[in-house]
Amino acid sequence: MLDPPAGGWAAGEPPPRLGNALEVLIDGAEAFPRIASELRAAESHVYLTGWYVSPDFALTREGEPTVFRNLLAELADRVDVRVLLWAGAPLPLFRPSRRDVRQVRQALAEAGIRCALDSRERPMHCHHEKTIVIDDRVAFVGGIDVTSQDGDRYDTSDHPARAQTGWHDVTTYLRGPAVGDVADHFRLRWREVTNEPFPSPSAPEEAGSVEMQIVRTVPESIYEALPRGDFRILESYIRAFRSAERLIYIENQFLWAREIYEILCEKLRSAPSDDFRIVAVLPAKPNNGDDDTRGALAELIEADGDRGRFLACTLYARANGVADPVYVHAKVAVVDDRWLTVGSANLNEHSLFNDTEMNVVTHDAGLSRETRLRLWAEHLELPQAEIDGVPAEIVERYWKPISEEQLARRRAGEPLTHRLVLLPHVSRSSGRLMGPLQGLLVDG
Q1: Could you tell me which of 179, 262, 372, 377 has the fewest CB atoms within 10 Å of its CB?
Q2: pTM (2 decimals)?
Q3: What's the pLDDT tens digit per position in 207-221?
Q4: How far is CA 321 from CA 156, 316, 317, 372, in A?
Q5: Buried b (16+ CB within 10 A) or exposed e, 106-124
């Protein structure tokens, strides 16, 4: 293994793997057709985990749609197809309910697809990871659910206004030895849930030059094989954020885990350089924990002390004078263009301690920088060449004036002229202290 750079790797198993190919797929219109293509090429098996799936979800939208259930049914005639889902919320006032998920299992079973439901969760928490393993050859790991629950996950990076909430999300496509770690985790959970024997895994061959690590959250006392749990997603974030020197860039559904935002506050109070910046892209209104995130943002602003090192924005789709919110469901972070993580884990107590989650981590500087530039080009609506500069200068030249102008337009009732909007984050309400309670509200 190579000597770890600043920030290091998470300790424990599995270790970082050499010889991988890793691609970052941004938004559903890029990810779902790739998923469909790789599924069609399956020769041995398909293993899929999810928070929830919609059997009628269309993976492709051009021409005749590729329906998720139909594609899996075709595959099940010739390969081993297994779907492992969270069993659903035990109380029917939360969704998906146990009944909702049992109906999904029935629909998949009628199509000849094996589906197991995992109810080995902490009370009011969930199995939140989103992974697909195909032939132990390729895997998808990220934040995208194959579902239309709470919104259609199929959206383009142009985010046109659709008279409904848009959806910004990210996943990864990987080949190489790290695929074996994703497959091993699926096998562990399947055995624990079903008590069924499982075929021995195959060792994926090297496929590229990327060194990467699969990290996860597994609560303690959920699975017999992991009695003490696994909390290396949190460890990875802590190591990386503490080591940051110039930039921490975050896209996440939530930002209220105290273990995370206290590190960010300290970085703002004692910035390692004058051009240090923290930029966060968050939903305008998260599905739950809104006051918790806003309260954390207020603490970050206070720690910044008007030095202009912290910025939080959100996204809107616009057309013909109307605007729809774009729900930021991505779970991405980049540190100094040398550390990158993409996965299913939100920056809340839910994901870092209580749910099952999986993230990819790499120290590949080229991929980290490329991913940030692609995301910034999308959000700033500018070509990559125009934003390929010192991050702090790009924040001052584009992020701040664009987002501030759009917030002013929204407050004045004027049409938006850009998708990037400064996120109002002045709440210091006592609701921030409700994080543990808000964490009981399961979310995809």
Answers
A1: 262
A2: 0.94
A3: 999 999 999 999 999
A4: 20, 12, 10, 29
A5: ebbeebebbbebbebbeeb
